[in-house]
Amino acid sequence: MFLLFFCYALCVVIRCVVAFFLLCALRYALLSFASLPFVALCSLLFLRLMAKTVDFVVVFDDGVRKRHYHETEKGDVIYFVVQLEVEFKGQWKVAIRYDCSHGFAHMDKYDIKGKRTKRPLNLRFESALTYGDWDINENWQKYKEEFLRGIQG
Question: Tens digit of pLDDT for each residue in 115-132?
Fold first, then answer.
């Protein structure tokens, strides 16, 4: 598992380094003959391409997994989703989700019937991401059982 994570992290680093050098070369070439607004536009493109995306799945047990996705820009988390998924009748269903899809960090808890309970977290995105990841790692068995029994919290 560690080797798989290490290979993934190495690929992300290599991709960022290659993108950085290519964009630096493009920016240098543009500075020599381009207008200032065009260079500014290319600089914004450069910053957007340097945003980092992390996306992985952790399998806890047969039919239980955690999906983790987040984007950072200039070191700040700008979007995240961490969710526990349970396989039920051949389909993956979300049991609990931490995300910021409505512009604020919150937790959605589901039961087997699809009923949802939303709870705001009142945390910065970075803290909510860390908390959600930790909570699912620590309590995935409890959340799986509650989901399958139809309990919401």
Answer: 999 999 999 999 999 999
* Beta strand extents in the chain (DSSP E only): 52-61, 64-73, 76-88, 91-99, 106-110, 116-120
Query: Count of CB atoms within 10 A of residue 27's CB?
Result: 15
Domain co-membership, 81 together with 19: no
d(C-alpha 55, C-alpha 45), whole Å: 22
Assess whether 33 and 106 both reside in one domain: no
Q: What is the pTM for the complete model shown?
A: 0.67
Terminal CA-to-CA distance of the chain, rounded, Å? 32
Question: Is there a single domain that holds both residue 73 and residue 125?
Answer: yes
Structure tokens at 33: 């003959």
